[in-house]
Design goal:
The protein has 390 residues and is an alpha/beta fold. It contains 10 helices and 19 strands. It folds into 2 domains: 92 residues, Urease, subunit C, domain 1; 285 residues, TIM Barrel, CATH 3.20.20. Strands 1, 2, 3, 4, 5, 16, 17, 18 and 19 form a 9-stranded mixed β-sheet that branches. Bound molecules: zinc ion.
């Protein structure tokens, strides 16, 4: 099956100018200034004029199985549905467990990831949850990485948080070491996704690993670093002095941020201004986790669910409100997570890459079309392919 996107401004994520992009089955086949639509080949033509073409977005931290439960059982959040993901332009997700590694299991997480893949997107998972020792599928982290294709790392391991298992920094270094070795032996990233709480130890465990062991900073990605100004400042220092990678969480209520919380788009601008290299910053949504909701007066209304759609919202806000360069903003959800997760066919627009693409309106930057592995999931801003139970 051939699809041809004509006359579109391509951000790969770097700007490639006005191009035609030909897709063949699940891959990008060719990019050129003019590719004729040969009727005999049954090419489906998509008009890209007045539109921008981006790589499909990568969300490297989503509670696909549901999360929460921190206000007792009734606050466990529901499983994610396919269109919760695709309507946000996301074509690759990494699923994870969170606080609850008891009523949510690795087996269920793996099955959910496989289900979403069958429905058309690309999925991976981290092994473990907040808890230490890590509860894995096979008995240990290294074996999970080697034996289970979808496992690309470990997480989200909680540190500097009252909900963490309070591992010592040596415990934490061992987790990073095992994850790295499992990654090396399986040709995967071996990334530890680290949940950062608001505790005073901040990023000290990650500094310990980089400074006192042989494990490189590219094996760890601390997330929620925009939960407070103090933590964000520590993350800036960690990124600049130790070459650390840092992740900002996008799913907060933009009108009523929690005290001291920094909106991801604002955090991105601040980090770039302070000289953090642009390839060391990623965004993730924390989608489907529980999240406090407020009314217009700022009164607590109860719990809601974090949205994957916040991922691109923050990229768009970074460009339109914060004045961040479009390519720099896009990197946080395309080429940067792809490189860190070693997803070789993801996160870029080039011949041979997976045909994961997002078309947005040039004027409004609203999502128009989402293509995952060559199949149209969203068209005219509406989901045309739905999940099994939607
Ligand atoms: Zn978390």
């Amino acid at each position: 099956m051939l699809k041809l996107i004509q006359n579109v401004k391509v951000y790969a994520p770097e700007y490639l100018g006005l191009q035609d992009v030909l897709l063949c089955d699940s891959r990008i086949f060719k990019i050129a200034e003019h590719i004729p639509a040969v009727e005999a080949y049954g090419v489906e033509v998509l008009d890209g004029s007045q539109k921008l073409l981006f790589p499909g977005f990568i969300d490297c931290h989503v509670h696909i199985l549901g999360g929460g439960g921190e206000g007792s059982y009734h606050t466990r959040t529901p499983e994610i549905m396919l269109t919760d993901i695709t309507l946000g332009g996301v074509t690759t997700v990494v699923g994870c467990l969170g606080t609850d590694g008891t009523t949510r299991s690795m087996a269920s997480l793996l099955a959910k990831a496989r289900g979403l893949e069958e429905e058309g997107i690309t999925t991976y998972i981290y092994t473990g949850s907040y808890q230490v020792p890590i509860r894995t599928l096979t008995g240990n982290i290294v074996d999970d990485l080697i034996l289970i294709d979808k496992v690309v790392g470990c997480g989200e391991v909680a540190v500097s948080d009252h909900r963490s298992s309070q591992p010592t920094r040596e415990d934490f270094a061992k987790i990073a070491g095992d994850t790295r070795v499992g990654g090396i032996l399986s040709g995967k990233a071996g990334l530890v996704n680290v949940h950062m709480g608001d505790g005073k130890r901040r990023l000290s465990y990650l500094r310990y690993v980089v400074e006192e062991t042989e494990i490189p900073s590219s094996n760890m990605l601390p997330t929620h670093i925009n939960r407070s100004v103090v933590l964000l400042e520590d993350a800036v220092d960690y990124a600049k002095t130790l070459g650390g990678y840092v992740d900002l969480t996008t799913s907060s209520d933009p009108d009523f941020l929690e005290e001291d919380e920094v909106k991801a788009s604002t955090g991105l601008r601040m980090m770039l201004e302070q000289g953090v290299p642009e390839n060391q910053i990623t965004f993730s949504s924390d989608g489907q986790g529980s999240m406090p909701l407020f009314d217009k007066e700022g009164e607590f209304q109860g719990l809601g669910v974090g949205k994957v759609t916040s991922l691109y919202r923050e990229v768009r806000d970074a460009v339109r409100t914060e004045g961040v360069n479009l390519t720099q903003a896009l990197r946080t959800i395309t080429s940067n997570p792809a490189a860190l997760l070693k997803l070789e066919r993801k996160g870029r627009i080039a011949a041979g890459m997976d045909a994961d693409l997002v078309l947005v309106e040039e004027n409004t930057m609203e999502i128009d079309t989402v293509i995952a592995r060559g199949e149209i999931m969203v068209q005219d801003g509406k989901a045309i392919r739905k999940g099994t139970f939607q």
